[in-house]
Amino acid sequence: MASVKNEDIQEDFTDHSESEDSNFDDEDELTRIVPPEIEDTRQCLKSRHILGILGFLGFANVYAMRVNLSVAIVAMVNKTAFPDLPDNDTFNHCPQSPDSQNVTRKDGEFVWDEATQGIVLGSFFYGYVLTQIPGGRFAELFGGKLVFGIVRVLEGMGEGVTFPSMHAMLARWVPPLERSKFAAYVYAGANFGTVVSLPVSGWLCSLDFLGGWPLAFYLFGILGIVWFVFWIILIYDSPTSHPRICRQEQAYILASIGPQDEDEKSSIPWFSLLKCLPLWAILVTQCGQSWAFYTQLTELPTYMSEILHFDIQANAILSAVPYLTSWICGILVSIFADWLLSKGYLTLSLSYKIFNSIASIVPSLGLLGVAWLGCDRLAVQLMLAIPGAFAGAVYAGNQMNHIALSPKYAGTMYGITNAAANMCGFLAPYVIGVIIQGRETLGQWRMVFYLAAGINIGTNLFYVAFSSAREQPWSRSQRLSSIN
Q: How high does pLDDT run on average in the chain?
C-alpha cells in the first residue's frame, strides 16, 4: 500500500499559501476542510482508535483521582467542631427529609472550616497549573506518549501535563474531520471517571475498613499503574513512528493532516503567542467554563450534604449525574458537529462559536435554576442533569481551536490556556469558602451559583467576538519552512 511522505503533501499547502494578512481573520482558504483522495483503512480497530481508547481510560483515571477528594472531604471533616452560626431566617434552610433524619453521620478527624476546606480542595491545582505549559512543550519535543504516560503514575504536579501532551498527540494523529468526535471520545473520559469515582468513593467512604475514606485514594492509584503498562506498550507519538500501523491508515492520516514536522526543536514564538487575540479568546472562555465546572465539581457534594441533606452515598451518586449526561451529550454533539462540517453546512470558525456558546450558556442557566429552586430536591437534580448535559458541547467548541490556530504549537498553546483556566481550580473553592463563611444557607449558596453563571456567560461573549479558526501566519511559515 502506498505511503505518503511530508514532501508529497507540502505542495498542496504551498499552492494555497497567502500573504500574511491580519492574525485576527476568522477564516481563510485553508480553514475549509476537504477530505483527502486517499481512502482510510477498512480495519475495524485502527491504531488511532487504540490511542482513543487508552486516552479515554487515562483521562477517566485522571479525574477519578481528582474528584475523590470532593467526596472524601465530607467524611474527613469533623462537622461538630464548628456549630452552625445562628440564623433566624427559616426560608434560608431546607428541612431534612425523613430519610436523611434517620442517617447517622460519622464525624471525621480533620477540624477544617469552609475556608480551609476550600484551600484543601484547591491544593491539587497549585502543581497542576505550574506544569501545564512545560507539559505541552515537553510533549512537542519528546512526544506525548512518554510525557502523558509517566505522569499518570504520579498525582498533583505530574498531572498537569496530561491535557497539553494529549493535545499534541491529537494534532499528529487525528484527521480534521474526526477531531470533534475524537476529542469527545478521549476527553469525555474525564466525565466517565467522575461518574465512576463519585459513587464508588462515596461507597468506600461509608465503610469501616481501613477508615473508609483512604480506600478511595488507594483504589484509583492502583488502577493508574495498571493503565500505564498498557499505554507504554501500545501507544506511539505519531503515525510515522508506529511500527505496527496499517500503511493505508498512515497514508490517510498524513494526507488529511498535511505536513508533519518531526523536528519540533525550533524555538517557540512567544511574542507572537502573546499578541494572538484568538488565543486570548480561548483562554478567557476556558477560565469561565472552568470556574463553573470547578464550582460544581468541588462544591456540589458539600451543597448536597449541607443544604439538601443527602447522605454521603446518595450525595455521591447524585453529584455524578450531571457528568453522566455531559459525557453522553458531548459525544453526540461532537458527532453532529463533524457531520455539519463534512457537509459544509458550517464553517470551522462558526462551528466553534456555536457549540462553545451552547457549552457555556445552557449549563449556566441550569445553575441559575438551581439557585431559585431552593429545597426542591428532585427539581435541583433535573436542573443539574439536563442543562448540565450541554457542557459536553465544549469538545466541538474551543477544545480543538488550538490545533486550528497552530498544529505545531498546539500542546504549548493548550498548556497556556489550561494553566490559566485551572487557576480557577483553587480560586473558585477559596472564593466559595469566603462567601459561605460558616453560613450554610440557601442565600449564601445562591451567590455562589450567580457568580459562576455570570462568569461563564460573560467569558463566552469574548470568545464569540474574537475567536478564529485560521492557522496563524507565524505558525504556518515556521511549520512549512522547517520541512524544506
A: 75
pLDDT value at residue 282: 95
Q: How many Cβ atoms are within 10 Å of 393's Cβ, its own excluded?
A: 28
Largest Cα span, the chain:
78
- Pairwise CA distance, residues 145 & 372, whole Å: 46
Answer yes or no: is pLDDT of 122 > 70: no
Torsion of CA 74, 227, 180, 354, to 10 degrees: 10
Do residues 307 and 445 touch, judged by C-beta distance below 8 A? yes
Q: How far is CA 9 from CA 201, 250, 257, 261, 407, in A?
A: 50, 13, 9, 12, 15
Using the predicted structure, report yes or no on whether residue 401 has a pLDDT greater than 80: yes
Condensed to tens digits (0 to 9), the pLDDT of residues 165-216 reads: 787 788 788 887 787 778 778 888 888 888 888 788 878 877 777 777 788 8
**Whose grid coordinates read 430519610?**
99
Give CA–CA dist 75/216, Å, rounded.
Answer: 11
DSSP state of 83: P
Distance between CA atoms of residues 225 and 215, nearest Å: 16
Interior/surface letters 140-166, b for 16+ CB within 10 angstroms, e for the rest: beebbbbbbbebbeebbebbbbbbbbb
